[in-house]
Design brief:
single chain, 1 helix, alpha/beta, globular, eight-stranded mixed beta sheet
Length: 133
């Protein structure tokens, strides 16, 4: 006995597959291959794997948090290919999702104008363009 996928079953299966593809594209694996280093006076309880957002939408993740030779926190941000590359004038701000919790901080980016110079992969956002919590 051979089973045939009826249209009644095929439509939900195709829709389910399409939903999975859309979610993978939107959420992604956590960041693209494009990275920038945002320098903050204080890492403000950020954690590796935390979100990088633009206007409330996730565009990447925090890849690494380290202390620079000058004592400034350096936060490596993995940014999705759709947003890359960032341009001069981009600002980074540490924000909180709510009042409680330890790992509820994320980095919000305000991209600079497309007319600004391109920030190369591995480039830096210096202190004047970053704001801590």
């Amino acid at each position: 006995m051979q089973r045939v996928l009826t249209p009644r079953l095929a439509v939900p299966a195709v829709l389910g597959l399409a939903l999975v593809v859309v979610l993978l594209v939107l959420v992604g694996p956590g960041g693209g291959s494009y990275e920038v280093v945002a320098r903050f006076r204080d890492a403000g309880q950020l954690v590796k794997g935390g979100d990088v957002q633009v206007a409330g939408g996730r565009v990447g993740s925090i890849q690494e948090i380290r202390l620079g030779d000058d004592g400034i926190a350096e936060v490596v941000l993995g940014v999705s290919d759709e947003l890359a590359p960032l341009h001069a004038g981009t600002k980074a701000e540490i924000r909180s999702l709510g009042l409680s919790g330890v790992a509820n901080r994320y980095v919000n980016l305000s991209p600079g104008p497309d007319s600004g110079a391109t920030i190369e992969d591995g480039g830096r956002l210096e202190l004047p363009t970053t704001t801590g919590i």
